[in-house]
Amino acid sequence: MNINLHSDKKFTVRPFLTLCATVLLTLAAASCDSPSEPLLPSAEGTASLSLRIEAPATTRVENVTDEEYAAFENRIRTLRVLVFSENGSILKNETFTAEELAATSGSYTHTVNGLPVGKVNIYLVANEGSIGQNYSNAGNFAPDMVITDDSRTHFPKRYSQLDNTDDALPMSAYQGEVDIQTGENTASLSLIRCVAKLRIEMVNELTRPITVNEMSFGTFMADRFYLFPQTTPSDVPDGITYDDIQYGSQDDTSQHLGIEIEGGATRVLVLYIYPSYAWTSGTDSPYTIGFRTPNATYDRNQFFTGSNPLSYIARNTEVTIRALLHTDSNFTLDFAVEGWGTATINVPSFD
Fold first, then answer.
1. Which among 53, 186, 322, 344 has most CB atoms closer than 10 A?
2. How many domains, the chain?
3. Which residues pair with 16 in a beta bridge?
4. pLDDT digits (tens, 9 = 90+) for 169-210
């Protein structure tokens, strides 16, 4: 299996990571009667699954650049490969650690033995611990598995909250009914992040410094998501609820964010969230953001509005929100949902 970085450009959509995995299945003339694999069904032969995984760098620096964000967002701390037979019996459940992924100068090759001839379903899950999961004793997997996070314990998370070397973003992939025949077989999967990225650029257009002590977002933070990407129009499960969120507090000095922005300068805050389809027909857009400083309150304003082409935030996309703070009571929002090129949509100024 080769996992390589590539970008898949689509209209105004920025997949901020796609990992291509090629699964090479080669049959050999041997039986699969190993006593250590009691769940393997009988088969005419065994297939080997060769994995070649290229792990990204994990360098972190205090002054974060796009390269450092990418290093974190590409990070794979664990990668689990699960293979199920057509009738749902688990054939393989193997996991690779960061140390294994980093072996041999950034690439690692491993062979999974004992796959029988027939149809199989393949699941990949990277960084399962980031969503509080452990699939070591996984039962039946399904393409429509739902992960519920009622208290939003795992996400949303600011980049600055993910400063442990074990922190990483959840990723997944699924390929069903892979036909394993005698001879060489191949199947391709795309490993995709389960979360989206909000990149908030705060631009101080005043001539003097300001300090942002509070930042808040509207009611679009989801409490659940599908573990694997869905092909239906909405990639969000039934029963989902949304909530707003606030970081810091202007009124509580112990909770100040303390984001200082010099006159004419820009500061960036990054937030990772579950996929969000919170805007329903006939309602005001919940996609809002607001700020507070010691001298001003910038009430929440919409960055997705009725005149914009998008009304949701899909997994594996990056939304850049540019807030121009140009008076003590007024600021302007721009946003873009990007495909490694840029498509910018202007948002009206605050009244």
1. 53
2. 2
3. none
4. 999 888 888 888 776 667 767 778 899 999 999 999 889 999
